[in-house]
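Example 3.2
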Amino acid sequence: MAANVFDTLRQQLVPAGGPPTVSRGILVFNLTPAELLPAVRRLRDEFGFDLFLDVTAVDWLGQSPRFEVVYHFYSTTHKQRVRLKTRVAEADPLLDSLLPLYGSAGFMERECHDMYGIAFRGNQDLRPILLYEGFVGHPLRKDYPKQQEQPLVPYRA
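Structure, written as tokens:
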């Protein structure tokens, strides 16, 4: 069954970034930012990838575009995972939100925004979820000074 799903996706979902690869048994697609939302919609609607697992990023300091945003999806029908990757520049780290397709995207995008500073167009709630209001910087960026101390913020009553 997995080979059939992989073969179908390989034939029907070919991004501008080239054909997909397989990494640790997971089909991996490299997409442009413009291809992301249509590809995710097709994964969900046509191929049965009904579970959005997570979104994170990789900071490739010194490369351009700097950030690689990585999405993982799972099909409860086919029992398979798919990984989508796209790159965004440091100057404008902005992608379309997956919130219209998966409600759980809201919290995961907030975390990615907190840690890396990547914004998601259409997600109106990018408040800090792991850090506190007033935290300066994005601690998972490779240029974040690991010895930096943040000012302590008093708890609100």
